[in-house]
Each structure stands twice: as C-alpha cells, then as structure tokens.
Amino acid sequence: MGVSVHYGVGFRSESPSRSGFAHLFEHLMFQGSARIPRGDHFRLIQSAGGAIDGSTHQDYTVFHQVFPSNALERVLFMEADRMREPVFTVESLRTQVDVVKEEIRLNLMNKPYGGFPWTVLPSVLFSEFHNTHNGYGDFSALEKVSVADCEEFFETYYAPGNAVLTVAGDVQPCQVMELVWRHFADIPARTVPAVSESDEPAPRGMRTGVHHDRRAPLPATAIGYRLPDPRTAPLRYLAHMVLCSLLSTGDSSRLRRRLIGRTGVATDVSMGCGLFGALDARHPDLLLGVVVHSPGTSTDAVIAALDEELHSLAAEGPTPREVDRAVAMTAAARHRKFDSLALRTPALGTLELLFGRAELLDKLPGALSSVDAVDLATAAQGLIPDARAVVQLVPGTPGGNE
Q1: Computed from CA positions of residues 37, 39, 42, 47, in that sequence, does the dihedral angle turn out positive or negative?
Q2: What is this structure's pTM?
Q3: Which of 151, 235, 257, 293 could form a disulfide with 297 if both were Cys (CB 3.0 to 4.6 A apart)?
Q4: Are 136 and 119 in contact (CB under 8 A)?
Q5: Mean pLDDT, to the nearest integer, of 259-272?
Q6: How many helices (H) and strands (E) would you count in the chain?
Q7: What does the buried/exposed string (b/e) look like for 104-119 if buried means 16 or more CB atoms within 10 Å of the residue's CB?
Q8: In the Cβ-directed half-sphere of 256, how many Cα atoms lie within 13 Å?
Q9: Residue 302 DSSP label
C-alpha cells in the first residue's frame, strides 16, 4: 500500500532571510511527535516491511511511504500525530541543520553536475526571489533558524486544510475513511494560508549565465524557457511535453540524432518540462534542455543547432511519423514513471494539491493524443532566443582548472 501527505508549502513559500527553510523543515518532521519518539517514524515503518521518504518541491512538501496493507492504521496514526503535534527541540534542529549542510556538500558541491541545471537556471530566467532561489538555501540562513521559527512555520503552513492525504492500494474505501476519521478528525482546524502568486513578467531578451563546476569532466549547456500555464492553456502545455520528446527522447529524436549520432559533439541530450517533471509545480515553470558536449564544442554551436531544429519545426512542422512517435513515447514515459505505488501515490496527491485533479494521472496519457503537428509547430515558434535563458557550465574553477 501507499500513503502520502502533501502540504501546500515549498521553497517558493520562503522569505529571503529563510532560504532553505522548507527543505530543513521536511527533515524536522521526521524528528518525533507527541506520541512518536524521535527516530521511531523510520523504525516503525521499516519494521513493518515498508519504506519511507520525503521531498520538498517548488510548491509543496510531501511525505510518503509504501508498506504491507496490515500496517495501514500504524501509518495513518503516525501521519496524524505529526500533523497534530510535532516536537521541535534545539538538539534535533541543530542535528538536522548539520544533516542538510552535509546533503548540500554531497549533492551540490562535491558531485559532478551537482544540482545542474535546476539550482542555477531559474536565477537566470526569472527575476523574483521566490522563483530564482533553490530549495537548499545557504549555510548562513540555515544556521539562524530557531525552534520558535519552526513552531511558527508549522502553525502557518502545516494546517490540516493545507494538506492532501492520499491512500492507494488494495483496500476498501470505506475502511480507509473509517481509519482516517478515527485518527485525523480531532486535529484542530487552523487558518489556511492563501496560495502565493509566483508569476512574473516574461523575459525580454535572452539572458545568459556561467556556472563553474570543479568536478565536471565535460562542459554543458542548459537552456530554459517559460512554460504555458497548464491551468489556462492545457493543450499548449501538453504540446511542449511532446515537443521535448520529439527533440530529445530516443536515438532517432532530432537533437540526439544530430548532436550525438551524426556529429558526435555531445555525449548526452535531454529536454523536459518542469524543474522536477511535468505538472509538478504551479505557474510559472520551466522547459529545460541540457546538452553535455565536447570541450571543442561551444555553447553557441549547441544553441545554433537547437535553433535550426526549432526553426525547421516552426516553418515546416514535424512529419506524421514524428508526431505519432513523440506522442507515443511521451505517453509511454508517463505510464512507466507511475506504474508503482511508490511513485503513483505521491503523484496523485501532487495533482490534487496543485490542480485539484488527481484523475489527471490516468487521463493525461490519453489527452496527449490530441496534440497534432500544428500544435507542435506552434510550440516550436514560441521557443525564441528573446524568451530564454542559457547557462554555460564550465569545468574547473574561475580563473583556472584547480
């Protein structure tokens, strides 16, 4: 079985003085509650044969677990207990600050291409703080967090009305509702924060940046464009998903065939919607492209190749075969990604929290079939130089190669 709890708070909810707080708080929610001692949340799930995790995204934080069905009540009890009364102490706070700092060192500082491009590209494409900063924050901000800050953050964002509980698996709905009512009904209601508006004017003119990576063996180029709002322009959003497949999924896709198969100047090419995947955030979000290429290939050459393919698609449109293949591969990728309870359960909650439509998880692959050649040509027309950001990853450190 799978159970997830989403809270409507992510790193776009943070203030400039509390960068990285939402992610730190995710860690703190595993540090004990009124009736669950510190450390027991993991122990009790794992002893039942389950697995547990949490993650922080732009607009939400999710806690999810997969386990045998006979542990359902245990899991619901623990999720309700930390929704009702988590315990924050100076000791657990300082410990988790150190854990997060080590995570930053491991995943960003000491890993080739660590956090690239999702931690660097938004700060070039966007202007407003809530869109430009990444979810890790910096050490100085993390070290200033107090227990009182944690209590205030919990009261503000971790209200029951700001949460979505998802239960998936082989269980009767009436049984689930009885257990949910038993464990969650007495949690006091609190004021629900308004959904923050994150939109900002689109860029006028191409924006560029340089990112130095002392661990990277090869240079890379990241390209970002603003995506259409999936709430107001769903078909346009779907067309961009299919366009990404047409350009970069499989050896016969346009960019992989050109940059890897034909010229051999790149070792990897990928394009996709969303910092963390399609439909994983409210508007605005990014269409991302990343090309890892040879030292002798410039960012300008990579961009020129992309622009030529986009111009061809905009002017002539894709072939019927390309459309069928790209639609099929995009739909198949969605099916594969969410064919396990470990991924399906939180995905349902994400779509419900962000868009009020959990059913999109099953309807989206079929909806993709409505995308046609005209839609793809139109999507390509919008990916113009004046509407994008480009970040060049340079191996080594500024002024030398370490």
Answers
A1: negative
A2: 0.95
A3: 293
A4: yes
A5: 96
A6: 16, 9
A7: beeebeeeebbbbbbb
A8: 14
A9: H
Strand order in the sheet with 388-395: 207-213, 388-395, 220-226, 286-293, 266-273
The 3-state DSSP composition of the chain as helix, strand, coil percent (nearest 5) reads 50, 15, 35
Contacts of 26 (CB under 8 A, 6+ apart): 54, 55, 56, 61, 63
Give the pLDDT mean for 259-283: 97
Phi, psi at residue 115, to the nearest 5°? 70, 5
Q: Which helix (H) or strand (E) holds 345?
A: helix 341-355
Q: Is the pLDDT of residue 148 over 60?
A: yes
Place of tokens 């113009």: 384
DSSP H or E segment with residue 165: strand 163-168
Instruction: Name the residue with tokens 């009767």.
Output: 172
Segment (H or E) for 167: strand 163-168
| 112: nearest Cα among 218, 269, 262, 257 | 218
Q: What is the mean pLDDT of residues 47-55?
A: 95
Identify the CA nearest to 285 among candidates 367, 244, 228. Answer: 228
Return the residue matching tokens 């939402």. 22
* Phi, psi of 55, deg, nearest 5: -155, 155
